[in-house]
Write a structure and sequence with these properties.
Blueprint (H helix, E strand, L loop, with lengths): L6 E4 L4 H8 L8 E3 L15 E4 L6 H4 L5 E4 L18 E2 L4 H19 L2 H9 L15 E5 L3 H12 L3 E5 L10 E3 L4 H6 L3 E4 L13 H4 L12 E4 L8 H9 L5 E4 L19 E3 L9 H16 L15
Parallel strand pairs: 1-2, 1-3, 3-4, 4-5, 6-7, 6-9, 7-8, 9-10, 10-11, 11-12
Protein name: Putative hydroxyacid dehydrogenase protein
Organism: Rhizobium mesoamericanum STM3625
Keywords: NAD, Oxidoreductase
Length: about 325
């Protein structure tokens, strides 16, 4: 064993990719990869650090000496409620690549709804030379819910594309050039919104947050005709049956969904067949494994130098 205790890695990513990246990571301490069947029953006492994504429920009882826990993604809800979660810092993944990928997806979805891509797709399949006259981005107000690193970057890039952008967060943020709202002004925020972008973390307060009552408060009769819902935050923050009903009933004109309460999305789920609903398989902002491991190495180095960790989760807030 190396002089330093190894880092515990429990990621539900492709095992071959993880094994490849691990060969170039943590060279001074080694690693225990729980995706490797050989490590299934290994003694995990004495391990200082763990990099986790959807770990097994008994992990913390098997690894009782952890000093820092690192999340394999921007969210931490996959293990915050597991039994035995130790009272140690929890660090979420924040990286330029992940942020850029999320903003790319959000901007793409907003543009597809703006330019009525679903109708072009229908016309192409029917071999119809159909011409559309969509509104300009400046005629559309995009409301971003969740103004952390991901939300703020997406908001700025949507503004560059010409959209009018407003933002909502649990505690009001001051962002240059963007009108912002807090929970005391939620209805006002929704009434101004043509395209609602969900980038909220999953907490008890945001579970089932995007529901029929919320959709009914979005602006009707704007330049798009009917509002659109876009979610790349967390699947359990939305009521999927309410999305279906809102699209079918004309409350929503469309949706783009990347996250779901059950993944993979079952093949018989009605979301698959809805017109003007774009489904992506939770890949809006896939974590780059190399960038993730470098992030963990940097934070461990900070911790061992006695410096403050970055991107530490506020346990009370849940993110």
């Amino acid at each position: 064993m190396s002089a330093k205790p190894p880092i515990l890695v429990d990621l539900k990513f492709d095992p071959d990719t993880i094994a490849r990246v691990l060969k170039a990571s943590f060279l001074d301490r080694g690693s225990i990869n729980l995706a490797d069947p050989a490590n299934k029953d290994r003694d995990l006492t004495g391990i200082d650090y763990a990099l986790l994504w959807k770990p097994d429920a008994d992990l913390f009882s098997r690894a009782p000496d952890l000093k820092v826990i690192f999340s394999g993604g921007a969210g931490v809800d996959s293990f915050m409620n597991l039994p035995g979660l130790p009272d140690v810092p929890i660090v979420r993944f924040s990286d330029r690549s992940l942020t850029t990928r999320m903003s790319e997806w959000v901007v793409m979805q907003c543009l597809m709804h703006l330019r009525q891509q679903h109708q072009h797709d229908k016309d192409q399949r029917a071999r119809i030379w159909g011409k559309l006259v969509p509104p300009e981005a400046a005629e559309i107000t995009v409301g971003v819910m969740g103004l952390g690193v991901l939300g703020q970057d997406a908001a700025h890039k949507l503004k560059i594309m010409g959209f009018n952008v407003i933002g909502w967060s649990r505690s009001r943020k001051e962002i240059d050039g963007i009108e912002t709202f807090d929970p005391g002004r939620t209805d006002e925020f929704l009434s101004k919104t043509d395209v609602l972008v969900g980038l909220l973390p999953l907490t008890p307060e945001t579970t089932s947050f995007y529901n029929a009552a919320l959709f009914s408060k979005l602006r009707q009769g704007g330049a798009l005709g009917k509002p659109v819902f876009i979610n790349a935050g967390r699947g359990k923050s939305q009521v999927q049956s309410d999305i279906v009903a809102a699209v079918q009933g004309g409350i929503l004109g469309g949706a783009s969904i990347d996250v779901f309460s059950v993944e993979p999305l079952p093949s018989d789920d009605p979301l698959w067949g809805l017109e003007n609903v774009f489904i992506t398989p939770h890949d809006a902002a896939v974590s780059d494994e190399t960038a993730l491991f470098r992030h963990v190495e940097r934070e461990i180095a900070r911790y061992e130098r006695g410096e403050a960790l970055q991107f530490v989760v506020d346990r009370q807030a849940g993110y």
